[in-house]
């Protein structure tokens, strides 16, 4: 614009006419221009764009004012589209990203007062009609629509409605059931990471994982994370990492974006690929407020890529503390057990039965001695009683024996056959008889017998 009114890049001739000689520029578009250090008065600036040159350009502020003036002359208009982002957090203001219903084109809409109060009723995915006037923010020279009226068209045909319909259908098939979800490995060795090339999400995941668990290795698959190529590439990447026997867990990561930017992760191909995946899968798409159908089918949903890194691996410092604490408790228990055994052994060693073993026999010895003494006394009593009994029997026998009668002067007369003669009539004259006296025996012949 500053070199010609054709809108084309400057040529060597136009550069020369603008004050650039052969020594001031080696190639088209290169060289040095001397301009005053301070601002120039407005009356010294070119009035029209065609009058600007490299030596006499407009400052950015003037071009922004020219834009502003042109935009101010534009009329108000009604526009229709779909809300992909809406921010009504600040009271009295609303900021909306409005996307065309059919083309991949979006614009910024802002409004205040009554417009902001009405906009609070709308959510991401709503189709709306907005009336407003084009507005230019001069500090950034950014164009937006200053809205004053917003009306709802309805959910029919909106992206959010289509995704909701797909969500209901897939939920009915059981793709989001909790019993299908897999537990994450406690100590993964290799992590499969699906993300955009040179994406911040990749650095966030790898950096935070390495800080928490340095021994982990990564297998990174770069894909498009928005646009038409996104769903197919993400589904293929999931299937590829799932067949890799070294991969213990898969992370699908993407930074924040508008509702339309994240649509690829709500594609049915991606959801079914995640459902068929036999390797635990973590969805880390967008920010905490964003959601996709991949979040519902994944085994774990992380609010951000950094959150995924914190949840996929343990903290090495925490694990070290746990191990150290466990070792300390084991040592304490072993020491306590050994101390108890030492005290038990010491108690056994100090018992009198071990220090003076013979003391163990003293009670038994006393029992034996007492038993022998009682046995001796008992036997003596038995003998004495038996002796007394014998003496009494002897006395009785002595008193009743024939000898005792003979001792008193009596005699026992017996016939020759030994029969005791106790009746004189039984004896006959001439019979031989035996007379037993106290001392000795007399043999005689009967000469007479009288009764």
What do you see in this structure?
This protein has helices at 12-17, 60-72, 114-119, 159-172, 200-212, 230-242, 268-276, 293-297, 305-312, 316-349, 352-355, 362-400, 402-407; strands spanning 77-87, 93-99, 106-112, 127-137, 142-154, 190-195, 217-222, 249-254, 281-285, 300-301, 412-415, 432-436, 441-445. The chain has 451 residues and is an alpha/beta fold. The strands form three sheets. The chain has a five-stranded mixed barrel with strand order 1-2-3-5-4. The protein has a five-stranded parallel sheet with strand order 7-6-8-9-10, sandwiched between helices. Helix 6 (230-242) packs parallel to helix 7. The model is unreliable at 1-7 and 22-29 (pLDDT under 50).
Helices and strands, with pairings:
Blueprint: H1 12-17, H2 60-72, E1 77-87, E2 93-99, E3 106-112, H3 114-119, E4 127-137, E5 142-154, H4 159-172, E6 190-195, H5 200-212, E7 217-222, H6 230-242, E8 249-254, H7 268-276, E9 281-285, H8 293-297, E10 300-301, H9 305-312, H10 316-349, H11 352-355, H12 362-400, H13 402-407, E11 412-415, E12 432-436, E13 441-445
Parallel strand pairs: 3-5, 6-7, 6-8, 8-9, 9-10
Antiparallel strand pairs: 1-2, 1-4, 2-3, 4-5, 11-12, 12-13
Helix pairs in contact: 5-9, 6-7
Name the features:
451 residues; rod-shaped; 38% helix; five-stranded mixed barrel
């Amino acid at each position: 614009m500053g070199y010609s009114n054709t809108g084309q890049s400057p040529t060597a001739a136009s550069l020369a006419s603008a004050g650039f000689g052969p020594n001031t520029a080696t190639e088209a578009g290169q060289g040095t221009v001397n301009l005053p250090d301070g601002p120039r008065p407005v009356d010294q600036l070119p009035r029209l764009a065609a009058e600007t040159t490299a030596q006499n350009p407009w400052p950015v502020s003037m071009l922004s004012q020219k834009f502003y003036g042109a935009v101010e002359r534009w009329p108000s208009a009604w526009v229709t589209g779909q809300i992909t982002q809406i921010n009504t957090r600040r009271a009295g203001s609303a900021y909306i990203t409005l996307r065309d219903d059919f083309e991949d084109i979006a614009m910024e809409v802002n409004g205040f007062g009554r417009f902001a109060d009405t906009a609070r009723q709308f959510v991401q995915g709503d189709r709306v009609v907005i009336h407003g006037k084009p507005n230019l923010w001069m500090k950034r020279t950014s164009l937006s629509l200053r809205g004053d009226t917003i009306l709802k068209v309805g959910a029919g045909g909106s992206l959010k409605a289509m995704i909701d319909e797909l969500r209901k259908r897939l939920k009915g098939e059981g793709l989001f059931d909790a019993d299908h979800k897999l537990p994450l490995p406690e100590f993964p060795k290799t992590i499969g990471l699906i993300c955009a090339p040179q994406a911040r999400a990749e650095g966030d995941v790898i950096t935070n994982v390495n800080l928490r668990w340095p021994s982990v290795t990564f297998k990174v698959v770069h894909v498009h994370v928005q646009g038409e190529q996104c769903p197919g590439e993400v589904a293929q990447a999931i299937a590829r990492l799932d067949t890799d026997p070294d991969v213990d867990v898969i992370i699908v990561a993407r930074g924040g974006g508008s509702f339309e930017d994240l649509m690829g992760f709500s594609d049915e191909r991606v959801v079914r690929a995640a459902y068929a995946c036999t390797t635990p899968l973590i969805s880390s798409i967008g920010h905490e407020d964003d959601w996709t159908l991949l979040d519902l089918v994944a085994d774990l949903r992380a609010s951000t890529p950094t959150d995924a890194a914190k949840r996929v691996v343990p903290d090495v410092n925490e694990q070290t503390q746990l191990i150290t604490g466990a070792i300390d408790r084991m040592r304490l228990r072993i020491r306590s057990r050994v101390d108890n055994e030492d005290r038990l052994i010491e108690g056994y060693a100090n018992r009198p039965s071990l220090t003076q073993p013979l003391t163990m026999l003293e009670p038994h010895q006393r029992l034996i001695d007492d038993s022998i003494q009682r046995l001796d006394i008992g036997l003596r009593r038995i003998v004495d009683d038996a002796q007394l009994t014998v003496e009494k029997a002897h006395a009785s026998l002595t008193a009743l024996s024939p000898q005792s009668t003979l001792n008193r002067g009596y005699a026992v007369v017996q016939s020759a056959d030994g029969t005791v003669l106790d009746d004189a009539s039984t004896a006959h004259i001439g019979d031989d008889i035996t007379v037993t006296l106290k001392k000795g025996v007399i043999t005689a012949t009967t000469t007479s017998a009288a009764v």
